[in-house]
Design brief:
199 residues, Glutaredoxin, Glutathione S-transferase Yfyf (Class Pi), Chain A, domain 2, 2 domains, 8 helices, globular
Length: 199
């Protein structure tokens, strides 16, 4: 689904440069809950990656890790084990906290409270968590990319920065804005955004 967290995986596929196919899971028509999609991914979430052997991988960190390790020539993960751990540390914080705890409260307050009268308070808490996530991440960022060299962590950080800029109109901390600007300039990011806009 365009403009969801799957754009980060879409970006990694563009970085890798091997042939792939994209199937849009249209949330507006609730295709994620269709029996066809649930047969592939009973979690009714995106992204899901179907491998050449027919196996299905789900969950953003797992898919990104698989793509990096199965395409070592792209250097999407550093070789040093501590630096790998730092990449996964940032990926986990972005996906589990900034995205799931923060942004999801903004976009889907009903997931956190069935009482509609509390939804504005849920959204406000989400915005607080979401914006605070960038404040926590910003001092850790290196240049030109999150941990110095481009990695899967940059794809994760980019998708939440994209939401901050395009969906929430949040002013990013300076270090995050620098990162976002560097990402927007990458050819793979441009190709991904063009493909998503056309989907």
């Amino acid at each position: 689904m365009p403009n969801t967290c799957s754009m980060g995986i879409h970006l990694l596929l563009e970085e890798i440069g091997k042939p792939y196919e994209v199937e849009k899971i249209d949330f507006a028509s609730q295709k994620q809950y269709s029996e066809t999609y649930k047969a592939l991914n009973p979690k009714s979430k995106v992204p899901a990656l179907e491998l050449d052997n027919g196996e299905i991988l789900t969950e953003w960190p797992a898919i990104a890790f698989y793509l990096a390790r199965s395409n070592p020539e792209t250097k999407l993960l550093p070789e040093d084990v501590l630096r790998q751990a730092r990449v996964m540390e940032l990926v986990d914080y972005i996906t589990a906290t900034v995205h799931m705890q923060g942004f999801t409260r903004i976009a889907r307050p009903g997931n956190f409270s069935p009482d509609e009268s509390t939804h504005e308070a849920v959204k406000a808490r989400g915005l607080e968590l979401f914006s605070n996530g960038f404040k926590i991440v910003a001092p850790q960022l290196k240049q030109p990319y999150a941990l110095g060299d481009f990695s899967i962590a940059d794809a994760a950080l980019f998708y939440v920065e994209q939401w901050a800029v395009r969906r929430v109109s949040l002013t990013l901390p300076e270090a995050c804005q620098r990162h976002y600007d560097a990402m927007i300039a990458r050819p793979a990011v441009k190709r991904m955004l063009e493909r998503e806009a056309a989907a």
